[in-house]
Amino acid sequence: xxxxxxxxxxxxxxxxxxxxxxxxxxxxxxxxxxxxxxxxxxxxxxxxxxxxxxxxxxxxxxxxxxxxxxxxxxxxxxxxxxxxxxxxxxxxxxxxxxxxxxxxxxxxxxxxxxxxxxxxxxxxxxxxxxxxxxxxxxxxxxxxxxxxxxxxxxxxxxxxxxxxxxxxx
Length: 169
Prior knowledge:
The protein is globular, with a radius of gyration of 15 Å. The chain is α/β, with parallel strands linked by helices. 52% of the residues lie in helices and 13% in strands. A five-stranded parallel beta sheet has the order 2-3-1-4-5, sandwiched between helices. It starts with 7 loop residues before the first strand and ends with a strand. It has one domain (8-168): P-loop containing nucleotide triphosphate hydrolases (Rossmann fold). The chain has helices at 19-30, 37-44, 55-78, 92-105, 118-131, 142-151, 157-162; strands at residues 8-12, 33-36, 83-86, 109-114, 166-168.
């Protein structure tokens, strides 16, 4: 794949799959700009979050971040700069929303599905929580992990085909 084949890259996977690590490596390969929702939320909102975190509170702020991210994406992609969106893309409708935005803007798109079994992902989350390394944005509790597992929708064959999908693991 040449760096100009696709301008917008959606990186999907459930919690702890390695989306950020994969995204950063993809950015190096493509000379792309990385947008990570965890970075935006951590820098702008988590310090003010209610305890316990309220789902609607978080989703409202995530929506604001995504709108600003998309504004930046359109400017970059219009200039031929590839972008990698590390926004979780937990649900099919979320991926479709960004795929539709890219299509409407005329930007070639590719979905990257980071597919890792749940047991391994939970192990990675625990390690990340402890080590607080480069990809650490916030502590993910078992309750948060389990919640995300319940809403996670893996891309099916049709979606992978439609979005020029590649599977990583």
